[in-house]
Design goal:
With 172 residues, the protein is an alpha+beta fold. Helices cover 22% and strands 29% of the residues. It folds into 2 domains: 81 residues, no CATH class; 52 residues, Bacterial Topoisomerase I, domain 1. The chain has 4 helices and 12 strands; from the N terminus they run H-E-E-H-E-E-E-E-E-E-H-E-E-E-E-H. A hairpin with a 2-residue loop joins strand 10 and strand 11. The chain is elongated, with a radius of gyration of 27 Å.
């Protein structure tokens, strides 16, 4: 081995240029977990944030005031996406986002659950099973759904006068 090294036939170790990790299902590359040395070199996280094992900032504790962006210093806003709540920078040029974990995620999930309206019971019977229909709110608006769900999955558009009646009785 030393003879090959002396002749210059042993190539140098490959230089790592990108932080790539293992390939997951579907051919997606997951981010590489940092080593202890790399993690220590990150230093203290910005105020209000913590580091993940991949080196990304996350929010662990719900901030009492405004949360400042870790990249540009502008204010960040709590938003809800398809995978749950997250913080996004208000600056259009900065595309920084931070996920939530721990206590912050629990608090945000509880707040999102309170905004969901309860279904309103109506006097209309279900055409399929005869149980009462419920007026519910969906992503495309109000609809009638059977109170016997999941056994009966009947849904339909609410009649025109029903929404007016419900609004009048709720206002009294």
């Amino acid at each position: 081995m030393k003879a090959l090294e002396a002749e210059g036939k042993i190539p140098d170790a490959p230089v790592e240029t990108a932080k790539t990790g293992r390939t997951a299902a579907g051919g997606k590359v997951r981010p590489k977990r940092l080593t202890k040395e790399e993690f220590a070199s990150l230093g203290t996280p910005p105020t209000g944030f913590a580091w993940t094992l991949t080196g990304r900032p996350v929010v662990e504790l719900t901030p009492k005031g405004a949360l400042k962006c870790f990249e540009c210093g502008d204010e960040m806003t709590l938003r809800t996406g398809r995978f749950g709540p997250f913080y996004s920078c208000n600056n259009r040029k900065c595309k920084a986002v931070a996920n939530l974990r721990g206590e912050a995620k629990k608090t945000a999930d509880e707040a999102a659950g309170e905004t969901r309206s309860k279904p309103i019971e109506t006097d209309m019977p279900c055409p399929d099973c005869g149980k009462k229909m419920l007026l519910r709110m969906g992503r495309t608006g109000r609809f009638l759904g059977c109170s016997g769900y999941p056994a009966c999955k009947k849904t339909m558009e609410p009649p025109a006068g029903l929404l007016r009646e419900v609004a009048e009785t709720a206002g009294v």
